[in-house]
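TASK: fixed-backbone design
INPUT:
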């Protein structure tokens, strides 16, 4: 069954579901584009891997990009003891977390050139300071190139990516064609609205239309997410009373377990 909501389903933002949804949605977008693109192009699913080390980020395994790490800064964090302690003290050992982010590249077959990059933002892009900065560094590199960028933000939580002139909204899709920079098109929409169709730029003023809403419903259906979503969990960020009542009515209409907000 499709998602009970007409647009983005905020329950997919739950940590236990987002990774699966992100992976399936990325592949669904790639398949949809491949169906509509001429054979002059192909869509590649790429993976960016980096280590989240708490106060620094090391990018690894990025195709055609050098490994990047911020300069080492020495800080005085070790206490000096005047005498040897007879009993141990409790300390914390920093742990590294390997983070993988998948994204899409539309490539020109004849030259292998990356024409367009499509990013589907994840919670760490918006909430983790170091992961966010790593993503913004990549974003800046794209903005200084001739590669087009599509940035899809289907997350209510976290800090929105920087841009000037944006309106407040639950969700955002940024389409940045290289020839129009620094101007870009922003599709801003809210919880109750259908995800808008977007126009993706290609080479020589070519374009392809991408309809994300039917892809989301297809992913929800194929993954049987109605069996995985706990509609009794609390949502973060919290919804307004009006949106809570609206979702509750839709969930009940589809005979899904009542949600608790």
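OUTPUT:
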């Amino acid at each position: 069954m499709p998602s009970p909501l007409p647009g983005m389903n905020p329950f997919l933002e739950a940590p236990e579901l987002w990774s699966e949804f992100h992976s399936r949605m990325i592949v669904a977008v790639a398949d949809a584009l491949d169906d509509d693109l001429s054979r002059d192009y192909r869509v590649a699913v790429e993976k960016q891997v980096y280590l989240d080390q708490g106060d620094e980020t090391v990018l690894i395994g990025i195709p055609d990009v050098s490994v990047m790490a911020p300069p080492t800064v020495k800080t005085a964090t070790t206490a000096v003891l005047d005498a040897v302690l007879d009993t141990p003290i409790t300390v914390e050992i920093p742990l590294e977390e390997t983070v993988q982010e998948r994204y899409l590249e539309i490539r020109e077959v004849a030259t292998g050139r990356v024409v367009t990059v499509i990013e589907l933002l994840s919670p760490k892009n918006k909430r983790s300071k170091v992961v966010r900065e790593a993503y913004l560094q990549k974003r800046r590199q794209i903005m200084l190139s001739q590669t087009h960028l599509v940035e899809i933000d289907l997350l209510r939580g976290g800090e929105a990516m920087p841009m000037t002139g944006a309106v407040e909204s639950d969700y955002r899709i940024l389409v940045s064609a290289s020839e129009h920079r620094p101007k870009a098109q922003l599709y801003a929409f809210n919880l109750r609205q259908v995800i808008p169709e977007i126009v993706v730029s290609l080479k020589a003023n070519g374009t392809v239309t991408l309809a994300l809403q039917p892809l989301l419903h297809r992913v929800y259906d194929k993954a049987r997410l109605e069996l995985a979503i706990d509609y009794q969990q609390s949502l973060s960020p919290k919804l307004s009373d009006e949106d809570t009542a609206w979702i509750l009515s839709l969930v009940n209409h589809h005979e899904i377990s009542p949600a608790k907000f």
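COMMENT: The first strand starts at residue 41 and ends at 52.
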